[in-house]
Amino acid sequence: MPKKVTLQMIADAAGYSKYVVSKTLNNQTGVKESTRERILFVAKQLGYYKTSEYNAKTITSENENQGFVLVVMPNIRQQNVESFYWSSVFNGIVDYLEELEVSVIVISNHDNLVEQIKGDSLIGVVTVGFVSTQMLLQLSDYDVPLVMVDHEDPLVKADRIFMDNITGIQLMANHLMGLGHTRICFVGDIDFSPSFKDRWIGFRTALENNQLLVTKDSLFDFNYKEKISQQLTERVRRWQNNKNMPTALVCANDQIATTLIEVLSVHNISVPEDVSVTGFDNIKCKSNINPELTTIHVLKETIGRRAVSMLLWRIKNKQYPTEKIQMSCEVVIRSSVTSPSDGIQIKK
């Protein structure tokens, strides 16, 4: 049975507050015409309207006749550090579609709204980050082009776009080894996403190419969905107790890296004097982090725009095989790395 469409669902999908949606649906003044048209269009596509002379007249527009693109986000209501990354990708997608005057509806993969979407005017789908196989199969039933950003599924036929995670992390690891580091550890949940897995593969390959053994000490694999700080604290204490602290820690993303720097500071371990720390993504997830983080710069907005161009090309070229695109990235050197010291100097 279809899920009842609420004001909050329309607000999330349209990108406005519930207050603005309520004013629009009640035909109140104080809402820009362009905003009103977008909200009414989204409401209709979600099946909010029953029968009304006002509604039927108002929600018809040129954009509706052109069709719309459905964007599926990991969780558009979450306000956590991931939004620093995904919101930039999302902005790249939506801004480009708006430039092209193509309507957009945004849903979360937790809202179960796929069955509410009316597919008559749907021209394509872009998913951002992890989306469950079940939802991807539901989306495939619309029989329109599908582009996945930073995710892939063997059961779903779709074009995919990633950063070149393997090459990016190899560049970072090679830079650290060029500084003299040999006790290097990768920190991340390698089963969390294809990107994390690729970054581990790139790290491991870099070690092997430099004739360094890959051992159990080369990886700290933890559960990214659980409390990161607590897990990092436990590992840092173990390194201290066993006196086998790596001289460089290559983290799967900036959130892990900045959290790790804070944990190391609590344990009187200096970055980079005692341990060098690097991230991936180049996002400002914590404004007060010190030292500044060495990381891999990811063109987040460009990924979003590239996903749109990929979708539009696929709409006109459905007969060709699906593609996987990898976009290049670059190392950004800041003050969180240096040459290895002789040993950790614990501050008194």
From TrEMBL:
> PROSITE patterns from the xrefs?
HTH_LACI_2
**What InterPro entries has UniProt attached to this entry?**
HTH_LacI, LacI/GalR-like_sensor, Lambda_DNA-bd_dom_sf, Peripla_BP_I
Q: What Pfam families does the record point to?
A: LacI, Peripla_BP_3
Residues of the HTH lacI-type domain? 5-48
**A Gene Ontology molecular-function term?**
transcription cis-regulatory region binding
Alphabetic keyword roster: DNA-binding, Repressor, Transcription, Transcription regulation
Q: What is this protein called?
A: Transcriptional regulator, LacI family
Which superkingdom? Bacteria
PANTHER family recorded for this chain?
A: HTH-TYPE TRANSCRIPTIONAL REPRESSOR PURR-RELATED, LACI-RELATED TRANSCRIPTIONAL REPRESSOR
